[in-house]
């Protein structure tokens, strides 16, 4: 029963498993109680007391590895381990990045940090997060009648839910927060300090966008679980639940994790953790692709909020969303039509106008990358996502510049 105590591979594996989780937990532990955390580090006796739970966790991990032995479920437990580590790293990211922003950009970063924290405190944020997570999990057991392509359909729906939840929150938050601060004269108080209008508006945009990033990544974590569970709930389509891009990511992610651990059960758990992070890495590109729409629409909502009330802002953002998806289709279909009647000519003109002025949101659709029959190379898709991200950044910059012009001569008194 206690043979694991004399097995160096198990002891070392348990030590590494525990220490990795402990190190990942340090940033959010300090965020919970900064004074207590710093005081513990400076006090040798308190630090020694804090090390006892860590040693207990190391022993618990080693015992668990010894208990599993050669079980066939070790790799599954490794995926659970990877999921916990992934969640901890996300929380660390949500804590560290905003603080770094205040160091790089003190004035605007302070506004962004306030907007970011305000976004996390809003009930609307948690409502959309919970509803989106439940919708993704329901999509696992929902029948699609696609003759073997249920996995692809569920995956596309998952990415769409992540994008729509972030868009809805970002547009509503920007429309409400900025317009309320301007109409309620709160913006005057903020800008009475050494913060100009540019830093105020851009800080608000960056803070709300960072909250949207947090929502997208957390829903992406839920989507990882859903895509992992999907084949188990649909044994008929289990053989077709395969995606080339996650498989390609696992080819380098799994060996990277295995190289950290000694042989035996610990390395098998590392295989499962590497598989989880391989899926997460490849799915992040899909989340980033959809996030291009989020960035553009939040920038438009931020610019319009300097002049328009909440209702008008939301209506215009919805119009941009639908027309941005519809305009390329209208242009394509009118080009196929024979003749040049007045009706067709007018539709073609409007389609060309909207296609030129509005963002091409249809390019940010993850569907074509999922439903294609031939495998898609991960790095080629990554290059495509980076290219579209540059396009999204350019359009976002244009929208924010327009917003700055609108806000520059806005009477705040």
Please tell me about this protein's structure:
The protein is mainly α and 413 residues long. It has two domains: 1-69, no CATH class; 74-408, no CATH class. It is built from 15 helices and no strands. The longest helix has 41 residues, at 265-305. The termini are far apart.
> What fraction of the residues are assigned to beta strands by DSSP?
under 5%
Tell me the overall shape. Answer: flat
The class by helix and strand makeup works out as: mainly alpha
**Low-confidence sequence ranges:** none
How many individual domains?
2
Could you tell me the radius of gyration in angstroms? 25 Å
| Biggest β-sheet strands, sense, barrel | none
Report how far the terminal alpha carbons are from each other.
Answer: 76 Å
Total number of helices: 15
How many strand segments?
Answer: 0
Keywords:
413 residues, 15 helices, flat
In short:
The protein is mainly alpha-helical and 413 residues long.
Helices and strands, with pairings:
Layout: H1 8-32, H2 34-42, H3 44-68, H4 74-104, H5 106-121, H6 123-141, H7 150-183, H8 186-191, H9 197-233, H10 244-258, H11 265-305, H12 310-336, H13 342-357, H14 367-371, H15 378-408
């Amino acid at each position: 029963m206690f043979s694991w105590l004399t097995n160096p591979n198990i002891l070392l594996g348990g030590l590494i498993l525990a220490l990795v989780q402990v190190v990942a937990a340090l940033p959010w532990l300090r965020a919970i109680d900064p004074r207590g955390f710093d005081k513990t580090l400076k006090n040798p006796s308190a630090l020694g007391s804090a090390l006892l739970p860590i040693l207990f966790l190391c022993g618990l991990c080693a015992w668990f590895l010894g208990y599993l032995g050669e079980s066939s479920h070790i790799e599954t437990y490794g995926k659970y381990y990877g999921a916990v580590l992934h969640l901890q790293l996300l929380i660390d990211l949500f804590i560290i990045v905003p603080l770094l922003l205040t160091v790089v950009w003190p004035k605007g970063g302070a506004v962004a940090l306030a907007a970011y924290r305000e976004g996390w405190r809003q009930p609307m944020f948690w409502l959309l997060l919970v509803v989106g997570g439940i919708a993704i999990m329901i999509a696992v057991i929902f029948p699609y009648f696609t003759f073997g392509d249920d996995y692809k359909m569920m995956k596309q729906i998952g990415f769409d839910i992540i994008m729509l939840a972030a868009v809805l929150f970002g547009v509503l938050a920007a429309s409400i927060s900025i317009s309320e601060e301007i109409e309620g004269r709160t913006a005057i108080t903020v800008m009475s300090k050494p913060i100009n209008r540019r830093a105020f508006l851009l800080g608000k945009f960056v803070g709300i966008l960072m909250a949207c990033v947090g929502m997208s990544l957390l829903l992406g974590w839920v989507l990882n679980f859903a895509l992992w569970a999907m084949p188990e709930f649909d044994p008929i389509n289990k053989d077709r639940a395969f995606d080339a891009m996650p498989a390609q990511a696992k080819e380098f992610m799994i060996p990277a994790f295995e190289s950290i651990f000694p042989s035996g059960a610990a390395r098998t758990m590392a295989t499962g953790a590497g598989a989880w992070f391989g899926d997460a890495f490849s799915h992040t590109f899909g989340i980033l692709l959809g996030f291009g729409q989020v960035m553009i629409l939040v920038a438009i909502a931020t610019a319009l909020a300097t002049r328009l009330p909440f209702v008008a802002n939301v209506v215009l953002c919805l119009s941009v969303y639908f027309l941005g998806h519809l305009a390329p289709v209208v242009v394509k279909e009118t080009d196929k039509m024979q003749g040049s009647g007045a009706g067709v000519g007018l539709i073609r003109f409007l389609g060309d106008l909207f296609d030129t002025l509005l963002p091409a949101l249809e390019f940010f659709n993850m569907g074509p990358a999922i439903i294609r029959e031939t495998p898609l190379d991960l790095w080629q898709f990554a290059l495509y996502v980076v290219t579209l991200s540059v396009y999204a950044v350019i359009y976002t910059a244009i929208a924010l510049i327009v917003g700055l012009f609108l806000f520059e001569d806005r009477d705040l008194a």
